[in-house]
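Subject: for your reference before the review

Hello V.,

The reviewers asked for a structural picture of the protein, and I figured it would be easier to keep everything in one thread rather than splitting it across files. Below is the amino acid sequence we used in the manuscript, unchanged from the supplementary table.
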Amino acid sequence: MQRPHQVVVLVLDGARPLDVGIPAEVFHPESGFPYEVSACGVTAGTVTTHGDFGFTVPRGLEALADADTIIVPGYVPAGRPIPVEVHEALRTAASRGARIASICYGAFALADAGLLDGLRATTHWDAAEKLAEQHPQITVEPNVLFVDEGSILTSAGAAAGLDLCLHIVRRDLGVSQATEIARGLVTAPYRNGGQAQYLPKTSPAVHGETLAATREWAMARLDQQLTVAELAAHARLSPRTFLRRFAEETGNTPMQWILRARVDTARELLESTRLSIDRIADQVGLGTGSNLRLHFRRLLDVSPSEYRATFAGRS
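And here is what came back from the structure prediction:
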């Protein structure tokens, strides 16, 4: 009889309970598939998790020695130091060929162990910039649900761990088996798009308020054709000075910022109204439904209709 595939979930202090529970459910042996899932910590005993929960784990890091797949759930705060022995245990497991995956902020543990150097990776969108800053040797992809680099995999925040685990099952056993597990969990086997659609706004944070009044003026006129000359005139600056200051404060050109503002406003209308795609496109200054679809897909990786199906009524 073939030995079941050993999945070990490494529960670190501050672990997020949902992140721990996802692999426990997907790889549970009662699913009828050849997995055996268990949990471990840095040492055996009780691990305090986020939200004052606790997990009792029967083994310490020695459990990783015979794991076929190791999953590191997210833990808080994101990017906090973890014990050196965890780095060593993960590197040892990787060197013998174990598959290692992270959920959410768990990517920081893999990064600190050096396992993501030179690779693409993702994490929760709210920590992607921090991961990139702390580990510039990693190509951070903030908009995807998960990244598969072969023996190293990372996922975006929280529920994206479910997408990742189902992807692992598809790799191991095929589409039909993964779909069967998804059906049992009452979830979609695949989700459309990436995590960009879950960001509060597509526009990056603004650093500076010198042009705040002009940005507010532009927001009230998104349905109109706006030019750099008009924006500069409102700010009482020359176009050249205006372009420089706008880039300093927003990280975008004025036209890039306006496009993102139009898409964000379209998102709000898709969530809160029953207006047609063409009507929304007209109201936000994108002209036609096809133009809105083009920019929506490029920025959010989903269509306006798919976005509305997911988020309508959220407000």
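For the response letter, the relevant points are probably these. Residues 254-272 form the longest helix (19 residues). The mean pLDDT is 88.

Happy to draft the paragraph if you're swamped.

O.
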